[in-house]
Amino acid sequence: MVKKIILSVVILVMALAALAASLLYKYPYVPTMVAEGFPQGQWPTKGVYVQLTGRPITLPHKLSVGSVPKSPAGKQLWSLLQDRETDALLAYHKGVLKYAYIRPGLSPDTQFNSYSMAKSLIGYLVLKAIEEGEIDGLDSPIGNYLLDLTDKNLSAVPIKKFLTMSSGLEFEFERTSGAINKNTQPIANKSYSDPFSHISHLHIEGIQGISDLLKLPKNPHYDFHYQNVNSALLGAMLVAIYKKPLNEILSEKIWKPAGASHAKWRTYPDDGQITAYCCLFARAHDWGKIGNFLSMNGTKNSPFLSNERRDLMSTKPYTKEQLHKGVYGLHVRHDTLDREGEPLQGPFTYFAGHGGQLVYLKPENELVVVRFGQQNTLLHSTLYLVWREIMAREETSEKTRENISENTNEETAKTPQEAN
Q: What separation, in Å, do the N-terminal and C-terminal C-alpha atoms of the chain show?
């Protein structure tokens, strides 16, 4: 009886060993994926990272603007920050920081994970490459620049299709809606946390490791299908065009000109290339600089894009109806503020990342808002409350300046005897 039990155990162990060997042969990247785990929200974290070199500039304000409410909206905003586990919320009006909240235990130097907000920067870089004549246009086939693609049908897909998440690939199988509810944000693709999924394969081995999977299906659907692989391919295309690592391209085109500090960007452990779709660790304040730089289209003396291409990254190409439902544009998202009675109205553009990481751009109001947190926040309510609180703060500041001016004038008007 004992011998039978021992024999059964040995057989079981051998079977498990054979299964493990088979899985490792088919999925050699899994041990690395399991060891690294799902990307963490703050630095430090596991993985292989390279420096994104910045050129930090000192802005005419400090990151110490109090979050003590100045208005009823400010009190509501404070409650929202706590309820939605917000780590940082910074709001800029006319390029000046007007509201700052950093969760206790964190600091202005905490580097947060961008998650999918990095995708939006890839979108801007593709438009910049067109601006510089490196790409003929959005309708150019991606295969003209990314020569390593082996599937001729995929090579013929226009670059714009990858930017709008409509490339026809069926790489990540969960299809997600393009519409964004007024009070929610996109749900992360669950396959990202599955170590046996295609995205996990990409996340470790990079584009080269999944080359045999990059094929269009027999009857591709060119509708919206949010997939990280689209951004990964665009990132690889930029590297092929500029013949530089992606972190150097971003540093040169956006990060340094915006005056942002050094940051960290994840690489695929197996080939050292940048994960274009995720995992850029930077300070919230630096995302504020990036937001202001892109919202104002660079600087007055050095525009980032021509007006025509700037418009392509804005809300201008879309109807009110489209914006009301929510639009995925060229790797940036667009929506509109239309709640009756609110003083802040009209369309806005935003970058979004897993867990509610956000950068809002509203150029018409010279407003940029940066938000990091541990769960999604209310997409529109955040802007409404921030704007009301900013207006209350600016009104208070104006009254203070008027009182100082009046007192100064009164003192100046006094005779020497009166002054004594």
A: 112
Q: How many domains does the chain divide into?
A: 2
Tell me: do 75 and 96 sit in the same domain.
yes
Reported as a pLDDT band with limits 50, 70 and 90, residue 188 is: very low
Domain that holds residue 201: 48-396
Report the side by side order of strands in the sheet with 327-328. Answer: 96-102, 86-93, 367-373, 357-362, 346-353, 333-337, 327-328
Q: What is the pLDDT of residues 251-308, one digit of tens each?
A: 999 999 999 999 999 999 988 999 999 999 999 999 999 999 999 999 989 999 999 9
Q: What share of the chain is helix, strand, coil (3-state, %, to 5)?
A: 45, 15, 40
Q: Are residues 16 and 59 in the same domain?
A: no
Neighbours of 71 (CB within 10 A): 17
Q: How far, CA to CA in Å, does 342 sit from each of 1, 69, 189, 214, 339?
A: 80, 18, 34, 47, 6
**pLDDT band at residue 409, thresholds of 50, 70 and 90?**
low
pLDDT confidence of residue 308: 96
- Whether residue 419 contacts residue 411, with contact meaning beta carbons closer than 8 Å, is answered with yes
Q: Please, which residues bridge with residue 49 across strands? A: 266
Which CATH number fits the domain that encloses residue 198?
3.40.710.10
Closest CA to 326 of 314, 317, 336: 336
Angle in degrees, CA 396, 399, 405, rounded to 5: 145
Q: How far apart are CA 292 and CA 152, in angstroms?
A: 40
The pTM of this model reads 0.88
The reply to whether 290 and 389 lie within a common domain is yes
Nearest to 363 by CA among 180, 93, 126: 93
Same domain, 121 and 26: no
Q: Residue 195 corresponds to which amino acid?
A: P
Greater model confidence, 243 or 59: 243
Q: Is residue 31 part of a domain?
A: yes
Query: What share of the chain in percent tops pLDDT 90?
Result: 73
